[in-house]
Amino acid sequence: xxxxxxxxxxxxxxxxxxxxQAAGDDVVLGSRDRARAVAAAAELGVEGxxxxxxxxxxxxxxxxxxxAAMLETARALPLASPVLSVASELRSDESxxxxxxxxxxxxxxxxxxxxxxxxxxxxxxxxxEDAFVCGDDADAKGKALEVAEKLVRGRAVDAGPLxxxxxxxxxxxxxxxxxxxxxxxxxLRVTGLR
Length: 194
Known about the structure:
There is one protein chain. α5 (about 100-105) links the parallel β5 and β6. By secondary structure, the chain is of the alpha/beta class. It is built from 8 helices and 8 strands, in the order βαβαβαβαβαβαβαβα. It has an 8-stranded mixed sheet, sandwiched between helices. It has one domain (about 1-180): 3-Layer(aba) Sandwich (Rossmann fold), CATH 3.40.50.720.
């Protein structure tokens, strides 16, 4: 699959690019700064481009920017492919998830997921946990689940419609609190799935 990672020069974007490239995907690393994208991409053995160019001709766009910049970044992109939102706002008064707000500003299908996966976990061996994806468009969700499956030793789990992003994004804050409190790197597994 050809995947663009917008905001790909940050820790999560780099780790995701490394994992997807190792799985055989064709990855384009996007950044606001061309030189930074090209340098990071060269280190990882993938293609680098400015964000607006990175999304052309791909099957899935992963928005790996920080939460505060995600909506503004998405508005500036010439999107023609489904978008996977991986960002979470740890403190928000919004009633809609960040992914739901993204769906209101772009004209392509939006799915959300990978919120429980930390960059540090993706940088090493695949974590022994599940990866969750939600969305309303079956084709877009299928592509995101295919990506998720390549990232973990557990399962890629269909977490339902896009409104489930509210729970997935909130779970990020719960995991951060647990990790800080117990000085661990907790993840999530769903029991009872076959």
